[in-house]
Amino acid sequence: MNEDHRHKVSRNKVKAIVFAVAIVLVVAIALLSGTVSFCSCSANEDNATEIVNQPTISRIQERGTLLVGTTGDYRPLSFREDDGTYWGFGIEVAGEIAKRLGVGLQFVPTSWPTLSADVQAEPQTFDLAIGGITITDARRETMLMSDGYLANGKTILCRNPGGLNEKFANANLTHAAIIVHQKNEEIPTLIAEGKADVMITEITEAPYYVQTDPRLAAPLLNEPFTHGEIGVLMRKGQEDLLQLVNDVIRQMKSDGSLRLLHKKYGLVYAY
After folding, report:
1. What is the gyration radius of the CA atoms in the chain, in angstroms?
2. Per-residue pLDDT at 179
3. Which of 22, 69, 117, 256 is the most buried (most CB within 10 A)?
4. Which residues contact 147 (CB under 8 A, 6 or more apart)?
């Protein structure tokens, strides 16, 4: 080994020693000042971040129950029997959402006239609302609405008190005597008995009553006056829950379970 090479090796050793000492000094100073924290980038860290970014979901899972607001007066989407049990298309979708969250399910009564106020109430009374809730720009301005899971549109078979049926009737049936009945589920029977001539309803509701009462007909069922979709409604600030609900709807469309639900309730599948 020549002299120059020996000097180079020595200089490299010196540099390595100085670098190592510098690292030790930096760590020692940091430890003394309390500014060092050791962490490992792992799945646990990712999960912790996910939980922090999901305040609504975390609250629901901690509670162990998904609180769902629903009117319970809208066959076959949401109906409450006299014994307090609920059934319907929307009720089953709510069950899928609760299943995805890994929690139980509890229904909270609401009404069409008070729906928006109930969704935004303080303190909060339920996590989301489901049933025959049409997706509209007006609702999206003040609240969150999920993707659509059921096609909808106005037809004839007059109205849910305070809801969109009354507004449609007032705007379009200007030469008719409009009767406002407070219990939506009683109106088809009034029509069948001849106590009123026409009910303004949706294509999501009319088929059920036609199938269960031969005195009723829905001649414009396949030619609705309007076209829209039914979705899940919730207050703003719950974007994590909205994302989960949309994931559930997309999954139900993908795996065919939503199509089967349409078939079960005699509704048109549009996806």
Report:
1. 30
2. 59
3. 69
4. 231, 246, 249, 250
